[in-house]
Amino acid sequence: MRTVVKGMLVALLVVAFGCGDDDGMFVDSGTFDAGDADLLDTSSSDGGADTSTGVDAGDTDVADTHAPDSGVDGGDSGVDSGPSTDGQERYTTDRTLSPLTARTVAAMEAIVARADDLQDDVFSKIGASATVSSSFLRCFDGDDVMLGESTHLADTVEYFGAGDAAGGDPYSRDSLCATVGWSAIRAISGSPSPLEQEIEATRPRFAIVMYGTNDINLGSITRYADNMLTLTDELADRGVIPILTSIMARGDSAAADANVPRYNLVVRAIAQARQVPFIDYHREMERLPDRGLSGDDIHPSVHRDGGRARGCWLTEEGLDHGYNMRNLLTMETLDRVRAAVLEGDVPPDVPGPPNAEGDGSKAMPFVIEGLPYTHVANTLFSTHRDIDDYPGCMATQDESGPELVYELVLTEETNVRIGVFDRGDVDVDVHLLDAPMSGGAPTNGETCLARDHTDVTERLPAGTYYIVVDTFVSAAAGAERSGEYLLTVAAE
């Protein structure tokens, strides 16, 4: 139910999360130590830079009217979306590339098994101007390539260079699903959609996806999540492995830039939910001079030499620039996934701890071990029906459907933002509960502090709290609105 019961809460999901100052993990984090940048992308006319100024034109005043008409069938993407996610890898913020373990490889192998008519040496580019730019990947189609310390990528660069993407190689192809000014809704609208047309034309095994910069201007993070999850599932259902990428900063607008981490957390949550590759491009960009942005403060910068853009120079100097960094991160991901998923090499990463300890009941709630936190689950598979209403929040909604419970322990006062995304006919609500005086998990909703359909933001003192994602029951339809959701929790 979408009624706000306590406070005027904004209609954004999710939370801002810090990129952190730790070195974290890429493959070798030392590869990305940035030096001083002498040259920035100022949109010269050599074809190596975006010529648009400001935000991509076209979507800033386009209403997003796409509304998926049903929830997600977890089986379609090869991922079990039931309440237990012990078999899923958690995508933490202390690394740039998501973990590639036996768990994630198995999820991607399930995607591959859905289609044997795709080409393993072909990828499609799915995105807006930062994907359209000739500085992104196109330069690998030619001799202007310097791999620097990344010579291990040579075989993979050559492998995809030999792929047949509708008569050309994947690097130089003009994708039917990559256009300046697009937001995620553009990719999946129409019949056939641009996404469907591109997959049909090129039959790729991989899709490199980055949307969000223009979606921020549309003003609905919940619709962005719907569209990105739908896009990801459509790719996986077709046997295409999505490679999701976080977006860069918005240096042109402080307000837009404040929303970047929230949109990026949505993408991280979707990638983790489906156990597909995630590139935290934003994390690496924040370490570069001028945050890796060009003179327009929106698009990535590119290294220049002799007046020409050199986006495929993966040298120390080149990697001080945004497009060069994205090219490296993308090729590293393709190299890793190709080896582990397609060629059967031993996955390079050690499995982490279970994504969610517990079973989602009051007795054994999912344990939130650190912030930011993301989790995917499905109340349809929950057997827990212990809390039916939340009088502590003066709520009258019927929440007698199945719920799942999370435990959050704060060691200091924290401004916490909790968000939940559902789709289609699913209607689950998020509730923040205080621990009862007697200790342990609440037995009812008397200790409810705040609730909402999508977003709860509260400043909380140190202590133990419980987050309950509960299923709304529609009196008019006489039906429980259970189903899949994405949960995010972080400190602002």
Concise summary:
With 492 residues, this protein is α/β, with parallel strands linked by helices.
Your description of this structure?
The protein has 492 residues and is an alpha/beta fold. The chain has 2 domains: 29-342, SGNH hydrolase (Rossmann fold), CATH 3.40.50.1110; 371-491, Jelly Rolls, CATH 2.60.120. Helices cover 21% and strands 18% of the residues. It has helices at residues 102-112, 129-132, 154-161, 184-188, 194-202, 215-218, 221-237, 254-274, 281-285, 322-342; strands spanning 119-127, 204-210, 241-245, 278-279, 304-305, 308-309, 366-368, 373-378, 403-410, 414-421, 428-434, 448-452, 455-460, 463-471, 473-474, 479-480, 484-491. It has a 5-stranded mixed beta sheet with strand order 7-9-14-11-12, with no helix packed on it. A 4-stranded parallel beta sheet has the order 1-2-3-4, sandwiched between helices. A 4-stranded antiparallel beta sheet has the order 8-17-10-13, covered by helices on one side. Helix 1 (102-112) packs across helix 10 (322-342) and helix 7 packs parallel to helix 8 (254-274). The longest helix has 21 residues, at 254-274. The chain starts with 101 loop residues before the first helix and ends with a strand.
